[in-house]
UniProtKB/TrEMBL annotation:
InterPro entries: Homeodomain-like_sf, HTH-type_Tx_Regulator, HTH_TetR, MT1864/Rv1816-like_C, Tet_transcr_reg_TetR-rel_C_sf. It comes from Chryseobacterium sediminis. Residues 35-54 bind DNA. Keywords: DNA-binding, Transcription, Transcription regulation. SUPFAM superfamilies: Homeodomain-like (SSF46689), Tetracyclin repressor-like, C-terminal domain (SSF48498). Pfam families: TetR_C_33 (PF13305), TetR_N (PF00440). Residues 12-72 form the HTH tetR-type domain. This is AcrR family transcriptional regulator.
Length: 198
């Protein structure tokens, strides 16, 4: 391995360590307490080294959120591909979204700015809207099958997204007084009623 390749590999390793340290700190202390100094201390480098790789904390948060959206996108596609009809795909996609949110709370909070400022404004990537796009596709296909007006698909799918994201947000911000089983039942009933209404 040449000198250039070795240096490049070292740079990639330090960059990955910065992102991993930031995520680990967020899991233990919360996103609000994250700072460039704490990240530098965690990887045992000086703060200027961290700034060599990322302009500011916002840039680190954006990279981590992008990774979260990518992971979510993969889970949604897996759920969709397990079923053949849009009536089956839609609940499976919603379930995958719900499960991702609660198995990856730190990612979800960062991705959607729950309890903090949302990062990545003006830097949206394709993966950011994959959930909305997938439920739109299913909604459109079901409406078309039923002979309803396909012009309603955008409005209807946005309403479903809002309902699902709203339930998740409420549960994440008020875990003490809302039973998770009740919310999952409400979610399932909402999706079922949504499909019947199309």
């Amino acid at each position: 391995m040449g000198l250039h390749e070795r240096r490049q590999r070292e740079k990639e390793s330090i960059r990955a360590n910065i992102l991993q340290a930031a995520f680990t700190l967020a899991k233990t202390e919360g996103w609000g307490s994250l700072s460039m100094r704490k990240i530098a201390d965690a990887i045992e480098y000086s703060a200027p080294v961290v700034y060599d790789y990322f302009e500011n904390k916002e840039a680190i948060l954006f990279e981590i959120s992008l990774d979260g959206f990518h992971k979510l996108h993969i889970e949604l596609l897996k759920a969709q591909q397990k079923h053949d009809t849009p009536e089956e795909q839609l609940p499976a996609i919603v379930d995958a979204y719900w499960n991702f949110a609660f198995k990856n709370k730190e990612y979800y909070q960062l991705m959607f700015g729950l309890g903090m400022q949302c990062c990545g404004k003006g830097q949206m990537k394709k993966e950011f809207s994959s959930f909305q796009e997938l439920i739109y596709e299913c909604t459109y296909e079901i409406i078309k099958k039923n002979g309803s007006n396909p012009d309603n698909a955008c409005h209807m799918s946005h309403a479903l997204f809002s309902a699902v994201h709203g339930m998740i947000s409420i549960m994440m911000m008020r875990t003490a007084d809302i039973p998770s089983t009740m919310n999952k039942t409400t979610l399932d009933e909402t999706v079922s009623a949504f499909i019947k209404s199309l």
